[in-house]
Structures are given as C-alpha cells and as structure tokens.
Amino acid sequence: MSVAVGVDIGSLTAKTVIVDSDCRILAYKIIRGKIVDETAAIMSMRQALNEANLSEPDIGFLITTGYGRNMVNFGNKSITEISCHARGAHFLYPDVRTVIDIGGQDSKVITLNGDSKVINFAMNDKCAAGTGRFLDVMAHALEVPIEEMGELSLKAESPAQISSICTVFAESEVISLAAQKRSRLDIIAGLHEAIGRRMHSLVNQVGITPPIVMTGGVAKNVGVVCVLERLLETEITVPPEPQIIGALGAALFAAEELKGSQR
Amino acid sequence: MVTQQKKANKLASASLIGKMMLASFEDIKRQAAEGKKVVWANGLPVYVLARAADMPVLHAEGLIAGLAAKKQEKPLQDAAEAFGMLPDACSYARSFLGAARIAKGDFKLDASVNREAVTMPKPDLYVNSAGGCGTGRVWGESMAVYLGIPVYHFEPKFIWDESDLEPSVADFVEQEKEFIQLLEKVTGKPYNWNRLKELLVEVKKAVTLRAEVMKLCRNVPSPASFFDWATSIGIVAHLIGLPGTGHLLTQMKKEVEERIAKGTGAVPVEKYRLYWDGILTWSNIGGLANKFAALDACVVVSTYTNLVWWPRPDMIDPEKPLESIAYNCCDIVLLRNYPYRIKALSELCQEFSIDGMVLSETQTCRAFNGHHFMLMDGLARKLGIPAVTINGDSCDPRFYSDAQVDTRLQALLETIDARKKAG
Amino acid sequence: MEQIMNRFRSVVEAPYEKLAEWKNASKGKVVACSPMHFPEELIHAAGMLPVVLQETNEAITSGFSHIHPFYCGITRNMVDIADKGQLNFLDAIFYSDICVQARTATCILQQTLPRTRVEYMRLPMSLNRPNASEDTVREFDKVKSTVESIAGNKIDDSALKQSIRVYNKNRSLLRSLRDLRKANPGLLAYRDMLLIIQAGMLMPKEEHSELLEKLLSRLKKGKAASKKGRKVLLSGHLCQKPKADILDLIEGMGGIIVDDDLYTGYRYCALDAEENGSPFQALVKRYLETSLPVPTRSYLPVRWDKYLVDKATANRAQGVIILVVKYCEPHLFHYPFIKEALAAAGIPHIMLETEHEVVSLEGTRTRLQAFMEMLG
Fold first, then answer.
1. Whole-model pTM above 0.80?
2. Which residues contact A3 (CB under 8 A, 6 or more apart)?
3. Mutation choice for B interface testing from C106, C298, C302 by most B CBs within 10 A
C-alpha cells in the first residue's frame, strides 16, 4: 500500500498526517520537540506510521511544510504552510474562504477560493505579539498554566488595556497591572483582547471573507476565538485538531502527486 | 509605584474647547448639507484662506487628535489598514484616510462605533500644508486621489540657513495666490479679500492673547500646563478664524491670572518644571496629565504648543494677509535646521525655569523627533537639564506602553533630584 | 568577464573605502549626493567625482545614538557610517528634500560631520506650479555655485555638455544591459545586474562605461539556457538596492524577473538630458518633465499605480513583487493604490517589507514560495 504523508515541522512541534490515495486520514501524530527539530519530525512520522500499521517503505510521496520544511533531510518536496493550511482547512470544510492560523512563532491569514487555491495571504512572523509565544510569555509572568488562559479570559468583567504591538511592552504592563492589584482575570482578558486586535489588523490586510476556520495551536484557546468572533462579527470554526491542518494539507498535496505518478 | 491620588488641576476654561470642537464639526455637517463646498486640510493653518471664501474647513489633526483623546480613533485606522496602509505610516494621515473611506461609505463600521463622531461630510477640495515633513504631500495626494477631488500642496521650504527665510516667505505668498485662484474656481465666486482681512484681525487678537497668557506660565507655580494648551490647541488650529475663540481666550487669561493671584498651580504640588518636546501622545493625554500631577511635575511648556502654531504674531498685519500667513507658516521651528531649534528650545527652557525634558518619540511622526539626540546632547548636557525619552505615537495607541513611561518619568525626576542635591 | 564583475563587486562591497583610496591616489575631490533628482552631471563638469550614496551591509551600531530605529535603512546607515568616520573623506554631501527621513539625515550629518560641507537641495515638488521652472533654475543655480566653490573652478557650458554626454552614454549602456538581459534572463542573475548599475554610482563614470562596453560585448556573444518559471515584475526601493539574498530567493524559486522600477535598476538609467541647446536648461527640463512615477513629487503625467499595471501587462508578468523599504513613507502612501490597481487588473502581487539588516530570511522565503505557489 502506498500512502501520502505530510510532515509539518514547526517551531516547537512536529506534526505528521498520513492519508491514503483516496484521501482518507489513516493516522496523525503531534510531537513536541526543540526548535525546528528534525528528530521530532522523524519521530512524529514513524509514530504515525506505526499507528496506521505501516512502515517507511509504504510512503509513496512525502511533502514537508512549516518553518523547518527545507531544513530536514527527508521528503520529496516542500510546500509552504500557507498553501497547506488552505488545502487542509478546505478538505475538512469545503466552504471555507478564510483561514486564520496562529502558531507558536507566527500567525497568518489566508484567503482561498472554492478550489482551495490561495488568493491572498498576510503573515506576522517578525514579532512575537500576535502569536502563541505572546500568550506563553504572559502565562509565565502571571503563573497561570497556558491551557487555562482561554477559559479564565472569559470570566473577566473589565479587560485591561494592554499593548498589542510589542510583547516586551505588554509584559511590563502586565507586571505593572499585577502590582497595582488589578484582577488577574482582567489582565488575562486584556491579553486576549490584545492578541485579537493584532490578528484583526492582519485580517484587515487581506479582507474578511466568511466562513472562517481557525487553525494552529492557539485555536484551542477559547478566549482568543471568542475575541476574534466578536471583532470580526462572524462565527469561527475550529477543527477538532487545529494543529494538524498544515500537515493534513501537505499530505493531501502528496496524495495528488501520488495519484499523478500512478497514472 | 505611581499613585494616582493627585490629579491634574485642569483649567476649567480650556476644557470648554471640547464642546466648541464638536460644535464646529456639527457646523461643517450643517453647511455641507446646505450645499457649501467643503475643504479638508492637514498641517499649518493656511486653510484660514478657505474660511474667508465661506467654505467649511475640517482640520485633520483637530478631528483625529480629539478622537484619539476619546479613544475613538480605531475605526479610522482600521479603515485605512483595510485599504492597505501599514501602521508605520503617519497615524494622523492613516486616520484621516480612514475618515475619507468612512465619508465615502467604503468601510463598514461595527455596530459599537460612534458613527456621528467618525463620519464627516466628503470634501470638495483638499489642502495639504504640512510644514515639517514631506509626508504631508503623499498624505494629501492619497486623500485627493481617493476622494477624486483637487488638492493644493503648500510647500514651505526648509530653512537650511537664515538667508532662506525671506525667499521662502515670498514664494509662499505666491502659493497662497495660486490657492486662492483654486478656491475661486471651486466656489465659482470671486475671493472675499475683505473677509480675509477681517479674519486676520481676529486671528491676530487670538494668537497675541494666547501668547501673552502662555507667558504667564513663567510664574512658579505654573498656573496652567502643557496639557491645558494642548487640549485647547484647537483655538489656534482647527478653530482659527471661527467665532468664540477670542472669548475663550479671555476666559483662560482671567482664570490664569486668578490662579496666579491665589498661588494655585496646574498641578497640586509643583516640585518639578518640565519641557515636553515632540508631538503629544493624544491617545493617552488624560492619563498623562494625571500621571505628571501625581509625580508633582508640571509640564510647563512644549515645542508643539509654544513654537509651532502662529509663532510670529508680530508679523500679522491684517492689511497684508498673505504675508502675515506666510511668515506664520514658514518661520516655524519645524522648518528650521537643528542649531536654530536647539537655540529656540534652550531659550524657552531658561525663560520658563525648566528642570528636565521629556522627549516624545512618536513612532510614526518623524518630523517632530529627528533632532532629539542632538537635543539631549546640545541642550541637556550644556544646560544641565536631564532628558528622558518616552515611546508612543500621536494617535495610534498601540505604540504606547504605560509601564515603560512610568519607569522613565520616575527616573527623570530622580535624576533632577540628584542634580539638585549635588548643587 | 569575471574580472569586470569582480571590479564592480569590490566597488559595491566596500564603496567608501574604495572611494577614499581613489581620492588619495588621484588627489581628486569626491562629492556625494543622495539618490533621486540630484544632477550629478554638475559635479562631474566641475572636475570632481560624483557619488550617489548607497547602503553598506554593516549593522547599525553607533548610529543609534543619532537617529531613531524607525527611520529607513539608508538614512540610518548613512548616519551610522558617518559616525564611524567612513565618510570623512568626502568633500561635500548634497541631500535633497524627498522625504522627512532624508531631511532628518541631512540635519544630523551636518552636525556629525563638522568638517564636511553638507548641503540641502530643495526643488519644487508640485511640478505644475507656474514658477516651477524658475524655482528649479534658481535651485540648480545655487547648487552649481556651491559645486563650483567646492571645486575651486567654474563650470562652463562646454564642460557641462560633455558631462551630460558622458552620463547619457553610461545610461544608454545600462539600458542596453537591461534590454539584453530582458531578452535572455538566463544571461545574468538579477543581483548581478543591479550590482553593475549600482557600481556606476560609486566609481568614475568613464571607467564604468568602458567596463560596461566590454561586458556587453561578452554577454552578447554568450548564450544562456532559456529559463522556465513564473514571470514577475519587481517594484519598490526608491533609494537603496534590494539585498541580493531576496533577489536570489526570487530567482532560485523559479521567478523570472522581467523588469523593475527600482532606483538601482530602471529609474537610475531611464532619463537622459538633452545634448543640444543649453546644458543647464537640459538638466532643468529633465527634472520638470520627468516621465518617471516619482512618489515624492506631484502632478506627474502618470501615477505609480497605473504605471505598474501598464508595465506588468506590457511585460506579461504573472505577478508583481513589491519591495517596500520599512518606514519609506512615500512608498507606504502609494502602496494601497498600487494594491487596488493590481487587484482590479487581476494581477496578483506580494508585498514584502525590507530592512537594512537582513532579518527573517526564512519568513521571506516562505512568503515568496507561497506567492509562487499562488501563481500556479
């Protein structure tokens, strides 16, 4: 059996998705590793293969994507995560026209057409504000587990005003607000507002075309999703496993290549 | 830690300006509805020429600064960003372009937005008279192209050395004549030169009186602060030539004189007298006013309020309106080379007994902060006046961080104390 | 050919060092000007070496104590290298009033280079004003007098005419180079073509033309393999040259740069001055009647957005890559209109912000690759 594999080598996690030639998802794996970690990428691939009762010779075509896509020594081809997120989101939600991806180190907004082709995109990767990193830094400063940040943000009564342009600035503000005994919930909500505003800016660059799907690790943060839904005045769909959408897209592109070569 | 118990002792009369500004915006809307041709303008107050042609004038900075102070600027900036403007560009300009988009109905406003505040009538003519930068030109051009209207660009030349001033004034007079020809074309009426002279009479009274009142801040404690002059800047900017400004200034003078008589200051306790250089951080003006008050610091004087708007009242002769306006648009500190600026600021610091300087590093307004390093060198070190920089922006609040400002201001005041102790 | 390219590379990689060496050896004078609008021919006619200030690759260090980080790369770089003493050899620097960043840089340079004559040229910006011609004549006249006083001799018409011929010849050779490459993109990497053009700003024009002629005859003989890929038009960078890394990335992922409107590309060699009649008036005319889409001036025959759509269409470009120098306000204000015009014409584009330091190359790679994937 020849399968198509997509490996997304991100800044902190490596994800693999395996699909068959009919684009059925056979397995997927997420491994947390070091920065752009080839070992983690290989591990995620092998573990996914294991789960699907397959081994490396069964790989018909492998496409890498993500930040580390060109830095690993395996794979037949590399495609950017922009195209892959569009493809992956479209596969799950064929009506989607905008994908918002907030990852650990970058964030992007992608508009696509009905054929999953990318029409336009905007990225923020020079600055931690507006990425998962922003929330990581703040969660650390507030001594709150990152997984709890989203839920807590929804409980605030009056979100604090916090800079959305610079993580370092924002961190100073958080410390200052905490010292002034401002409610932790208000601060957390303020941080979510900040990330929301930052993403809103990015969305404005390409324009909003619903329906919107959110991908990437930060999509699991219900607080960010709520803020974005409010600012964009539209519902946002979050897939059950938002982190694997890039790898899924890569796998689907690989399946295409496989089909093409099999003719 | 900054305590917020002490608050700024704002001039009650200066606070009346808010209502006057809003009333003027409503008046523009009314006049537009009556069919008058509307002018949108940015920069120096040469647009008073349009007022003489009975055209309602909306001054960009007047509208935007006011919105930013009330934290209502976001929809305008969102509208500009949606059009492709990047946040690095001048935030006044972006905001005004956003206002143009909203005026044209090209940008959908959220339900939560105060529509009245951000929606102004579309203009028929745009005039750019940004004095201190070339950005005004691309700003004005963008506005005109977007709105499909004519634009006039005033270009006061940069005074590289003193010999450049008179030719610059002479050329500016020619530009005013060209602009007046354009006004006649747009209005379809001959220009009302008498009205212009009448306006200049009022302008002269207003700016002379204002300069007098500002000088009273040499008093210790200062009866008014930079925040009072900044919030009331509309008197010499957006509202110039409109009725009511003279009356407001008379009230301000009275209030200031009463305070001097009673020994009342603009801040509850005046331990430090400061100079603010650079554009104001409009988005945080209220908070900043109280922040300084809480630190027992009075920002007594600033380049923006003291040296930019109608700096040559001595050259205003209503019988020579074009020359009067030309001197006041050409001989401003922003159009001067750095040694001149440093000298002008030094004199102001000495005149007002300044202890320290706050340098506002507005991220998107480069016209006002290019000389800051030289200022720290030439002024701070020579006059022994310590300076501190604070980061922010004129009307984009994303660039401002309160915690950073707190730390730096406190450091400035500690430095002033240390220097005083050392003698 | 490699020898010629090496000469150009050595000039561009350490320009101010090389120029200081040239000055030492020749005992000549070197006068620098900022990019855009400055009539270099006046400096040449006075017997001095004109140089157009261009970025070096070094990181900004001591410059940070004179200029803010939110100024464009070339102004920060100039202030920085001036502070490090690299511009001390210059006999004069002329800057021109193109934007607030340039104005600030000029004022700072005047203070940080007390022994160098720093002058500021202020030409009319509204080219349709009744006195635009008179104003230009007056300003160019002022510049001419200043140049003469620096050189210690007068500029006569025949010298100026000769300089115009020298410059026109050089521009014509550069245009031939661009045309040659356009017809056969595989002949020369874009980074090399821009390097050749930039080298001419930093060395004696006569030598540059001589080397160019040799290079052109070699290139004409050469036959490069035809390139397959996606045709793209390159736009932006009004003063400084884009970094080679970005140009390599574009070409490396199958982008065929069919044309550009960069300063160190199209703009520098687009406009000749007339060789008949008064040479001084020829320079004035070239300024006033510019056909270039110059965002720092108003009332031009064509705006930049329309120009780009027409250029992309004429070149059958599949997409446009717009390089915006961070904090370049003239570009920032035109970009939304360019974006709108390209969208209306159905021409995809990508906008990349560039900085003095090469940062986030991986991010740029991803964006460019995604753009190429978009083009299909």
1. yes
2. A18, A19, A20, A21, A26, A52, A54, A58, A59, A60
3. C298
